[in-house]
Amino acid sequence: MQLFPARETVFVLKVSKFCNLRCAYCYEHRELHVRDVMSAVTLGGLFAQIDAFGDDLEGRGISPSFSFVWHGGEPLLLRPDYYRRVTEMQQASIQRYPYRNSVQTNLYGFNKHSLEYVLASDWELGVSIDFAEDIRRNVGGRDSNAKVIANAEALHTGGGRFGLISVLGAHNRNTLMDAYDWAAEFAEGWRILPLFEGGPEDSIAELQLPPNEVADVFIELFRKRANSERHLPIAPLDDYTKAAVLRIADQAGAVDVDRALLDNIFVINVNGDVFTRPFAYDASRCLGNIGRQSLQQMLEGDVYKGCQQIVVAQKRENCTACAFRGYCDASPMHEHGSIVNDNGRQRCGVAHDTISAVHAELTDAGVDAATVSAWARELLAQPRPAAA
């Protein structure tokens, strides 16, 4: 069987909700005081299934590889013994397919030895910085921004490599352009996540930007990067740029919207409950528990099929008549906060507006057809990276 290019299956593991920060928009805000930790039994049950799940994916025409994203709360508050045990279980259970680990940390308060262990083990590190004050405070109300930036700079000086993660909202709408220079100097890449529902309602209402303003930020970053010495990878801007380039070159490369593309990102709660990313924590959309059902059983279950039907219906409504159909892979329809209501019609907000703006930028710049075609060939040869 001919396999599709590798598209990582990602498990976002909520190892503990306990956190030393109280960010204004955090969607875990109700449980940040809870010290429960994902058990070795739950983790062992997941790892023991990976090879069999990889076989199942291969049977579906998907070339399997796996990513484990250690999330919270603040995962680096856990002791290093926890992560040593994780490594032991993974090595004992996962034999046939490639996998990698990454940790998302606020880098404010953490167990130094845990950080040292994950870095020494070649785990990837994502550091959350918003480049704004009075939004990411500690339990006592003190702002974390300056300390986290200093910790990140010290980490870089000591040889530690990390990616940068920022939540985009009204709080940093006007600071990210200046932050690009810092990010280009210290970080390996930058993921910018527009703020979405799930946090305290008052804060969300105050901080959330409309899609057109989010698109404005992305296009400003597009211009900023184009005139900077270092081209820093930025997600999802790079995906949007790819779609615009393919459209200009008229080289469609994405899966058609009518196909029920397997959602490749699963959120696993502390207790082992499993969700697909658009429906995380919706009890009616829980696929099952990793301790009681296999991943294959979950994919064959009615709940998962129902989730897929919802997403496919959204794609048909949003993507079928879109000018970028076949150039964008419709993955925004699988993501949190991507769907907006436009006069009674559901559509992706940020993605379409940003792709359109990048398309206009490149067209207006008069880039010659041969150059655009070369870009398109290069982009089509690259599998779409998965990120949480």
Give a quick precis of the structure:
The chain is α/β, with parallel strands linked by helices and 388 residues long. It is 39% helix and 16% strand. The strands form three sheets. The protein has a ten-stranded mixed sheet with strand order 9-8-7-5-4-3-1-10-11-12. Strands 2-6 form a two-stranded antiparallel sheet. Strands 13-14 form a two-stranded antiparallel sheet.
Task: Write up this protein.
By secondary structure, the protein is an alpha/beta fold. It is built from 13 helices and 14 strands. The chain has helices spanning 40-47, 50-59, 80-93, 112-120, 145-157, 176-186, 201-207, 211-226, 237-249, 295-300, 302-319, 350-365, 369-380; strands at 9-14, 21-23, 66-71, 99-105, 124-128, 136-138, 163-168, 190-194, 234-235, 265-268, 273-276, 288-289, 339-342, 345-348. The strands form 3 sheets. The protein has a 10-stranded mixed beta sheet. α6 (176-186) links the parallel β7 and β8 (190-194). α8 (211-226) runs parallel beside α12 (350-365).
Approximately what portion of the residues adopt beta-strand conformation?
A: 15-25%
Query: Which ranges are low-confidence, i.e. pLDDT below 50, for 5 or more consecutive residues?
Result: 1-5
Largest β sheet strand count, sense and barrel closure: 10 strands, mixed
Radius of gyration: 21 Å
Q: In total, how many beta strands?
A: 14
Helix count, DSSP H or I runs of 4 or more residues: 13
Q: How are the strands ordered across the major sheet?
A: 9-8-7-5-4-3-1-10-11-12
- Can you write the helix and strand succession as a string? EEHHEHEHEEHEHEHHEHEEEHHEEHH
What structural category arises from helix and sheet content?
alpha/beta
> How much helicity do the residues have?
25-40%
- Compute the separation of the termini in Å: 29 Å
- Overall, the morphology is globular
The average pLDDT is: 90
